[in-house]
Structure prediction request, 131 residues.
Amino acid sequence: MSSIFSKIVTGEIPAYKVAEDEHHLAFLDISPLAKGHLLVIPKKETDYIFDISLDDFSALWCFAQIVAKAMDKVFDCERIGVAVIGLEVPHAHIHLVPLEKGVANINFEEPKLKFTPEEFKTIAQKIRSEV
Prediction:
């Protein structure tokens, strides 16, 4: 069975895409911890991130770095936080979260933020323009 992320890759489910290449996709998390919180995934569905081949694993992190550097240009944040939890969706993914100055806002137990579709589109466009 395809994961929700695989359905985003194939276009069956819409997403606020930020960056994409042949093997990877970055899109906004629809239940974000912070404005700009996004997910970076390999297009090839693999449940556990450490089951990815070494070359694909390295390429995924290189892609995530490109996206994180673009995020740094867009958000007034102390840095871009990184988390790999891997339990919510059976498809390897990296969370990139802009961390506000002096705030540890990468706690997944905190309430998620809500944005309108227009706000999501604006956020995605700002990051996309810097990739």
Summary: The mean pLDDT is 93. The two ends are 32 Å apart (CA to CA). The chain is about 30% helix and 20% strand. The chain has one domain: 4-128.
